[in-house]
Amino acid sequence: MEPAPSHEASRAYQLEMLDHSLRRNVIVAMDTGSGKTRVSILRIRAQLERSTNEKKIWFLAPTVLLCAQQYKAITAEISSMPTRLVTGHDNVDTWDASTWEALLNGTQTVVSTYQVLLDALVHAFVRLSNLSLLVFDEAHNATGNSPGGKIMSQFYHFENTRGGSTPAILGLTATPSIRADVKGLEALEILLDARCISPTLHRQQLLQHTSQPRLRAIRYRACASFIETPSLRSLQRECAGMDIMEDPHVTLLRAKNTERSRRELISTLEGQKTWSSDQINGFLRRAREVQRQLGSWAQDLYIWQVKTKFLRSLETAEKSPHSYISKERVYVASILRKMYAEEPTQSPVNLASMSEKVHLLLRELLTVQGYVMGIIFVKERVTADMLTKLLQSFTKLRDRYRFGCLVGTSNHQQRNRCLYEFPESANLDTLNDFRLQKINILVATSVLEEGIDVPACNLVICFDGPPTSKSFIQRRGRARMQKSDLLLLLDSDVTEIQRWSTLESQLAKLCQDSDRKKKEREVLESTQESMSLVFRVPDTEARLDQDNAKQHLEHFCQKVAAGEFIDHRPEFITECIDDALGCRVKAEVRLPTCLPANLRKFSSASAWVSEKNAMKDAAFQAVVALYRAGLVNRHLLPFEVAKVPGEEPRAAVVSVEPVYQPWHDIAVAWDQAQLHWKYRISLHGPNPDLFAEYSLTLPVRLWPLPHVFVHLDHDTAYQVRFSAPEAMSTTQSESISDDTSTLLAVHFAHRWAPKDASHVIKISADEPIAIEAIGKHPIDSTCIDVTSKRYLIRDTFLSPGIYVETLPSKPPIDMVQRPFPRYEEAPEERYLHLSKWTRRADFLHRPQMNPNSSGQVPSSKPYSRVLPVSYAKVDSIDIKHARFGMLIPSIMHHVEALLTAKKLSETLLQPLEISNLALLLEAITFRRVNKSMNYERLEFIGDSILKYCVSVQATAAHLHWPEGYLSSYKDGLVANSRLSRAAIEAGLSQFILATPFTGKNWRPLHKADFLDRSSSPSARELSTKVLADVVEALIGASYMCGGMPKVIQLLTIFINDCSWMNPRQGRNLLFQASTLSIAPNAFLAPLESLIRYTFRRKSLLLEGVTHASYLADTKQRSQGRLEFLGDAILDFIVVTNLSNHVPPLPHHTMHMIKTAMVNKDFLAFLTLEEYEHADPKGQNTNTVTAHRLLALWQFLRHASSSLSSAQSETHKRHQEIRQDILQAIHHGKLYPWSLLLRLQARKFFSDLFESILGAIWVDCDSTAECEAFLTRFGMMPYLMRILRDSVHVQHPKEELTKLACAEKVVYNVDQVLARDGEASFRCTVLVGDRQLVEVDGGLSREEVQTKAASAAVALLKHSSQVLPL
User: Fold this and answer.
1) Which among 968, 952, 962, 945 has a CA at the least distance from the CA of 1071?
2) Contact 211, 480 (CB under 8 A)
3) Strand arrangement of the beta sheet that strand 831-836 belongs to
4) Is the pTM of this model over 0.85?
5) Structure confidence by residue, pLDDT tens digits, 926-976
6) C-beta separation of 321 from 382 below 8 A
């Protein structure tokens, strides 16, 4: 099927009409389907934004149905402003002044019929001076003594003549109806005090798309006589047999017997006319008319339905104790009960029961080819209803068509009480079904000729001929598709043929005029004009000329304005200029709203005969201006590579310089430093007597020296604490004993020969100890020092053990777990049973397994290790020194890492003056080096801060860049490829600690070994992601140490692509660049009240709520840049709040919470939430303040009907599930991932939230107001609750993958169609080969997968069925 033309596709016309309307009163004359309603909505919004809420806007339409349609269209796009629909159905004739005052209080726009406003003006309930804009839809109806004509002549012109205040006028009408009568046009212009205008004719588009339907007239013979069916004969008989003397009305008049009643009785008897007789006679006339038009089958169905419905309604009324039933209705019912009426067959049984007119209609419907979207126009309401039922009765038609019926509404009370009139079927549901193509053939009266928006049709049938040329033109306008047909069924009667011939000649003249103008345009567009526009880029010689300018411009717009609901194409508006050379054309091109105002509109430099050339000229001027503004590059293409870097290619692993070795510098410092520094070392844990205290001396000041935990076993940890350093002279330092070698030897003597040499550090015990005391004394197994386990016992290899007991003899070898070599040859004597002394050298990492809970079966051999007494030696150094000695390698590694951090702070990061070495150490430590202290947490914080700084930098430094350029710029600077390159170029890689400490092959670090630098360490390989992560971690550390000033200093060191500015400076530039002030208006006031913040620069708020589809405001940019800023600000606020949490949160927890807080579905939910708003009182202070519910989404300025539909559908889903979501937010233990996905919210919802946040930040220069905004809309309270109550926020799919371990998780999604045609999704989850769950009812694939994952996780957790590895 050929799609109907989109209203959005012709927006240049609409903007042209809007511009005219803003300058003066106009009547916009545009063809049916060209978007007149959109022009009125743009005009209404513009009026709302330029006036206060004291004056109202009134939209007038001639029919109730059209009022309802236009009300829906207005509220869909301007939902934030209170709009009321008022028609005769509201019993307006019973309203008094207080009712009107209550209605208008807080209401900005009223939609009503002409008559409603006229009556209100007549009774002075409404004053024209209180209106700011008056819109006349179908303005050609406002003539003479019509209600619209009276509004203008009796009130508008009256106010004008006495100098009173009058509203602006906007009339809307279809062009053909105006062209048909020039005199009528002039009169209408005078009456409406407006000039009639039409959009500039875009010749190229007109020549390409102009399409008139094929016209065919089909002749038929009208029925010469009636077929008297039993039902018709019975109705005729009852009608003829009515005795007027039995009529209740006559009986009542006779009973009254007054002079007046006698006069009325005589009149009634002479006229033989009462309500009852009118009903029965009218019933008969309608039945005959139905047979004449449709045939006897439809007539019998009509008679049966009328009788059945009337009697049924009477029976229902009789059952109600509160209903009043007139005697006339009872009398009519008695006649109907006597009348024969039988329900006919389901469809006509033969051709004789249908009229020839119906035969011809059926033939056309059955023979038409392809998909049909059509309208059948009839004259009478009853005919429309019965023809619809007749067509629906045929199976062949039902298989192909879906029929609907639409007739006009009526306020005439007599018509509504008529026996023979069916209840009105006109409603918006029928129209919506037709628009959605659930109905593809609509049977309608003239109500559908004008005003009502319906899809373009390819078949229009005039079942009853059009009564006027205007009616014909309007019906023809409904057949707007290419290759469409307009069929007219015409009576072969001579009079009818003559009437049609006269009408046809009038229409032919109109068509000839149209064809002549079309040919004139063809000639003009084919005119050859000399045209030579050339521009060359100086350094590249890239060429721009008139032939490629439009192509370049369209490519640029496509790149910078891509997005949903956005038409990125440049819009051209042409204007005819009369000069000495005749009528010539100038063109203006309008570019997307993401560009600044000075780069949005460009005009052709010259006037041209050809519209095509005028548009080429305008496009040429635009591209040249964009080049000079730096928005296209030296090759005349968007995205200047030099200024907007994309992501660089990145290798996974790169070769970098070796890690910094601090011990060489320490060895040199021992000889050169004039001061040495002493630190006291103490260990704190479960048993305070297990360790002694020591002194650590270094030739450098290392402070603060953070504490470190050492793990003696899986369950026991001690904290090594360092005191503040005490400065000493070298002489004092030399006087302190150096016990480092001894302390190391106590533990490691069995691994290498003890050597009493200077180390790179000096550790001193508080009591004298010597290497000679290690394993030098024979053992006395009865000595208390041995049995108390104060000293280590060693074998001949100095391997240590701890005394357990003395055995009287040598135990058998099969009772010893670890017998020493040549055990059988050992002497027979007393033996010592010893427990194992640990051989570990790494105490920084917790052992992976607790031996007591490892599940290993205890050995059946009772002795772990035994030693002959003659082989054994005992130390005279207390075992607590051995315990400390075994920790020295771990302590030295800790000090080495701190020395590396210190070197980094004194060299590369020296300008930052960071003194917190622990934070720097955390920033440069890879996770596998130290799980308890690694850069991941700081990297998470730094990532957000970097994004924030880069976003502000890009936006402030490039005020004219659109959001697409800003995003590309940001992505280039924050990419891992750029950050890893920055780390390498700055020399950061040497300070990154990526190799874990194991203690394996550890040897003493003697000073002499480091003074001899005969060999240099080799290069190493690092992951580029690690390099990038460390840069971000340093950004996080800088922020934690000194806020934004230190972050900017650090960025200056690593990234020199720009001159970095503090975000506050950037904000000041953005604030100064915003429009200074705009007039207070009725649109922004309730929005400021809703967000509880009053803007100093209202233009920022206006920009924040302007979608890129909204082109009417040529001075205001769309929200893209502020959304770009707001996204970064939101991240920054959430992450900084998480980073300040006490106790500190693990990296993965912060990441999950941030993902939950900033995901677009949650932001959309906050945007959809409604809050009570009190509208300000009007001038009458006694008026009760009006309260209504408002939500952020209602304030989005846009011009897209598709976006309006998306808003409406999402709002409906929100209302259905909001209580479930709120329950989860306020009380639930799980984050509502699947519920939020069920909203199916499009991105523009979250964009609006972020852009308003960005606007607040620019306006107030504070994240405090931004946090207040987030608090107002529920984000911060939910964040606090997540932290307080440990709400589980992990995404179900991520959690299921974790629970599945090594098994693959598969989501099989199928689409399921219900009987009503609605689609839903079903998901089956497989883990490995097992099917865990099946979930259906999803509105999207993503939602049903998430629901299924949640169900699978719950199942696994409930059954404790963790899948095997």
Assistant:
1) 952
2) yes
3) 777-778, 873-874, 793-794, 800-807, 831-836, 865-868
4) no
5) 888 776 777 899 999 999 999 999 999 999 999 999 999 999 899 989 999
6) no
